[in-house]
UniProtKB/TrEMBL annotation, chains A, B:
Residues 689-747 form the Glycoside hydrolase family 65 C-terminal domain. It comes from Nonomuraea cavernae. The lineage of its organism: Bacteria, Bacillati, Actinomycetota, Actinomycetes, Streptosporangiales. Keywords: Glycosidase, Hydrolase. Residues 327-679 form the Glycoside hydrolase family 65 central catalytic domain. This is Glycosyl hydrolase.
Amino acid sequence: MITHGAFTCEPWALRSTRLDLDVLAQAESLFALSNGHLGWRGNLDEGEPHGLPGSYLSGVYESHPLPYAEAGYGFPESGQTVVNITNGKVIRLLVDDEAFDVRYGRLRDHEQALDFRAGVLSRRAEWESPDGSAVRVTSVRLVSLTQRAIAAICYEVTPLDEPLRVVVQSELVANEPLPKPGGDPRIAAVLDAPLVGEENSAGDARSVLVHCTRRSGLRVAVAMDHLVDGPPGTHVVAESSADLGRVTVTASLAAGETLRLVKFVAHSWSGSRSRPAVRDEAEAALAGARDTGWEGLLSAQRSYLDEFWSRADVQVDGDPEIQQAVRFGLFHMLQATARAEGRGIPAKGLTGRGYDGHVFWDSEAFVLPVLTYLMPDAVAHALRWRHTTLPMATTRAAQLGLGGAAFPWRTIHGEECSGYWPAGTAAFHVNAAISDAVIRYLDVTGDDAFEADAGMELLVETARLWRSLGHHDADGAFRIDGVTGPDEYSAVADNNVYTNLMAQQNLLAAARAAERHSDRAGRLGVGEEEMAGWRNAARAMSLPYDHRLGVHQQSEGFTSHQRWDFGATRPEQYPLMLHFPYFDLYRKQVVKQADLVLALHRRGDAFSPEEKARDFAYYEQITVRDSSLSACTQAVVAAEVGHLDLAYDYLAEAALMDLDDVEHNTRNGLHIASLVGAWIALVDGFAGLRQRAGVLSFAPRLPSGLTRLSFTVSMLGRRLTVEMNQKSATYTLLDGAPLRIRHHGRPGKLSVGTPLSRPIPATHPSKEPTQPPGRRPIRRASS
Amino acid sequence: MITHGAFTCEPWALRSTRLDLDVLAQAESLFALSNGHLGWRGNLDEGEPHGLPGSYLSGVYESHPLPYAEAGYGFPESGQTVVNITNGKVIRLLVDDEAFDVRYGRLRDHEQALDFRAGVLSRRAEWESPDGSAVRVTSVRLVSLTQRAIAAICYEVTPLDEPLRVVVQSELVANEPLPKPGGDPRIAAVLDAPLVGEENSAGDARSVLVHCTRRSGLRVAVAMDHLVDGPPGTHVVAESSADLGRVTVTASLAAGETLRLVKFVAHSWSGSRSRPAVRDEAEAALAGARDTGWEGLLSAQRSYLDEFWSRADVQVDGDPEIQQAVRFGLFHMLQATARAEGRGIPAKGLTGRGYDGHVFWDSEAFVLPVLTYLMPDAVAHALRWRHTTLPMATTRAAQLGLGGAAFPWRTIHGEECSGYWPAGTAAFHVNAAISDAVIRYLDVTGDDAFEADAGMELLVETARLWRSLGHHDADGAFRIDGVTGPDEYSAVADNNVYTNLMAQQNLLAAARAAERHSDRAGRLGVGEEEMAGWRNAARAMSLPYDHRLGVHQQSEGFTSHQRWDFGATRPEQYPLMLHFPYFDLYRKQVVKQADLVLALHRRGDAFSPEEKARDFAYYEQITVRDSSLSACTQAVVAAEVGHLDLAYDYLAEAALMDLDDVEHNTRNGLHIASLVGAWIALVDGFAGLRQRAGVLSFAPRLPSGLTRLSFTVSMLGRRLTVEMNQKSATYTLLDGAPLRIRHHGRPGKLSVGTPLSRPIPATHPSKEPTQPPGRRPIRRASS
């Protein structure tokens, strides 16, 4: 996309300078606005043409039966799919007697821009109707970061050459027809018109629609109101029916005269409250927005973002494309999480219906590790959501015959929704990702209240899961057999190193927490015996190693398997899972996404530098990156073992995953984890950020393509800015009490007002590892 | 059932002396008649009450979509399910104005008997209607072994106490309503009324119905004709509609006077021929049957069975229950296979719709090994059927990225129908079972024509599969990774010993066959290089062994897994797969059915006696027999390692699987493989029959409960009778040229007229192994 000629490279915005319908769906995802609670795809104001219309409220889903050709015990019976709620974006325009539609007439000019500092999507179009009437249409759209129920649009239309009569229809549209998704037609049928109208009303320039989802029984209210500024004679009519709220504005405009419409749209939903309560909540939010006004919303939006960027901005000199991409990624990370309060962070945020809107492990494994240093409050919200689902996770564990909690592989509400048991039942590492996020959050914030309310219970229940899942063998080693690790081209294997190391950390953290807070531990039923069991299991954790090759085995026996025949695999046969059966992928040495290499990153303390170099080189040869959750991790470890230019290429792939539509599915929504992966690649990769026991360590080293990198992280309530170039790194503590850090292994102490500068040692990397044919990271023309 | 008071123990029949509606569905399975082409469940003549109405033609199925919550590459999209065809069994009776129905009025007497020598199901009922009219109804029913399209019923009704008017309605019923199966309601819907009427006619005492299955497009014609013998004034009317053919006979009978009806029912079907052709074929068969007449059909049936029993009978002295059960099993084996010509042998024969009527590996792995020694021609038919499906199997292999042929895990027509990929994609051992059956058949018959037409190609294409499925590792060992062995409580594991040993035999047999017939090999594209590849793979085959425990690993790493917590498993939690998730069963040491122990049986040459004893003892401790395909194998190996009483218990469990309804699913059809398992347990077990390179060896030893065992096997066109008691065994060659055998390892030579007697050496068994708590074989009260 960004390599697409319509998109410009600039530091603080994503801009397309013309409209290309071939990439319309992708652009809708890239231009999506969200605050983590409400999401609007970047659909054109007039609704059509569209790639995929989308308006989402986090947590609003429809249920559907999960079908099986041969069912088994414990297979989930019910799935959950994000619902396209009542669409408040639509503003249709009639110019004289011609509908404004970019597919007809002539589009003289069209620009869309997502501004990362203003937090708005703006659009400007000059259009000539089939009969030659020319108008300029501009709109500025926001989803408010300060009033989470609110979106607003400022819409203007101006005749360019001659007086024109215009009719503007501003709408709420429920149950809008959607392109059919692939897959099971029965599920598509369930989602065909998921909203049942319960109430509608209209008056003045207002309308409200209340609906309830058919099976999941969730009630959604969407209300709109308008400020209309037009010439005398401008008429406004409001009307409503079950699935439509419409305010029609009619005006006769002189050439150069502008009709201006500000549309406020308010949303509320609930699974338990009454129709009047849900309706009133939307109308109350609407009143609040009207009171704030358009300019007020705009300025609050900018203030919120100023504050965000002051904590989160990353400056990259030497590569404008990466500079733009990392800010784009951080902006969407903010949008996916800022106001998610009490809900999970879906893999696609609220930018599309890819993966059915489900939350996966990448929330805790990729997004929260970044968010912890930039917006720790959002991390607490996300983990508190997991905590609210604990009853479902303990029920699920019991159903599987296990202790503790088994969090779902994919879900919206909290129940397991995976219809593929090697993932849904066996990918237990999601539990380790949750505990890892808890540990990091507590380490960075020291948030005792969170630990007491939620954190400790999450650590304890996940530790219980591991203890019951594994066993000590005849040698006393603790084995965790038959689980699926991160690499989805392996499944149900023994002693996955990543899983085992993450479980080890989980068990020890739970034991330490229980030790520190023995009263709370007691209330959770944790005694000395159980803690000893956790410590013993952690101490004796199995980590399969191939002594002949001198590398760790992703899981036991992995390195004995046949290597995938990469030479015989044609480029169009990627991603492999669409062209080869699971069983064959599972039994061969081929890696979809970093798994053992993710262990090298997340549990680097468990490997020597030499092991890291050998393991990385080995797994590079067989990793195909058919997942977006790989490049950033490979970037980090490549940087650590000294392959800086390779790391740079992986950084670019992660950063441009959606901007370049690398996996050809950006149309269904953005890859939030890959977008934050750009930050991970830069900060964990080139700055070498690691954290252990409350101390941040850095090992800065820039690739030849970058001249300077600067970023800020929060630690124990203080902000620390790191600035590095090819020669040295400077650490500046912006506020708070002194802080200890490490630079390339050497300790240092930072105080406010006393920056610390340190030289960067030279690297002596071994020979750069190779990838399977055709699977090198994409090398950009510019690099 | 046989422990059920209504069933008697007798040597040549299965008889119930009263009607118990609680076990009606089970009795319908036990009393099923079949010739392998046509099957009639033992439903009551009057159609109701019923457990499960069933009339089947081998190969007649309906297609239905296979649903997946998350589909994957190579998952079959279409399933096949056996269809209940037009039911020609129904003969309803009206006595004065009361319908004969055993649920009303009073059933004074009711007996049903399946005669293993006559090949008929007879029934006698004395019934008093609610208003007190008493009649005797008798019927004798057969499915002809000599005219495969034909079934016939001789039906008689006699007033007992007073003159009565009776109306007999003899019917053809299509699309009869069935009890809903469990599982997916959408699939049930497809099968609700699968037959579309194409033609119907009636006249005289005849009727014919022609239907076509809705999706699979198979055309089925069923025709009936009657001979009516009643007093003067007896009226006969025939009529038909789309789903009903009916011949109504009205008669006024004096007390003691009998109305007799002989009903001939003829069947034909085709997937390609025209409606008239299929109809005419049924009517032609009907003409043939009428010409033969009822007595002719009866006497031909008896002659056929006399010949069968002369080749196949087994005499067991000391245990009448086992005597009855083994003949019951052989009778049903005959029924499942006798005239299956050109079709597979379903797991349930044609006795019910269990497993959707599918053919599995147990056809080749359990049924054919017995059939080879008793009815080798039927084996050739069954294997020729597999050969006709070779194009589908090579297509499937190519789809999976493999060479050669991948035969389906479950099918009716030949396409893979398993909707569970760890079975449907990974249970490759079905291919080894097919090649094993080919090898044994060729060894026993020397049938060169079969080898040329089909056998060699089956060996070559399965060998190609193994060669492409496995690989040589860094040590040169040949590994077959990621496959599912016979034990369904493990899946997708590396180097399953059973699979690897059977593949080894397959590879070597293919190489030897290609060597012997180099011209034919050349036509199949087999050259020296390929043969060398097969031999090298076979020679280097991996066989994982646990040196610490001194036992083979069912598959690599198996003995490191946690042992299932048998102590915490309650009796009602068996079968385990209904109460625990697959993933947990797969990753623990718990065995559903003989797997490594099946290797000890089928590839006993690969193990030392000490290894067999240790392996057997080890796997006994963790084998739960949640499958009917286990007890007979455990019996064989228990006998071989000297645990004769344990073997005896396993024999009983296999033999009584259906008679005692051990697995509570006999209602859905008989377990044909388990029924022949009684023969396997007796002959391979207590007589120790093994075969290698054309020589039969025996190692006879009887358990204390049996005084004598005698049986006959065919070898190279000759019949050999073996008779053994506690002290000695006598081998008698009944015909043909001299034959070499082995008795407890010592060679002997048999000639006609010169029986060979040999003493039986004493056994010195080790301590009897233990089974998981509650999973000992069922010890009968009588033993």
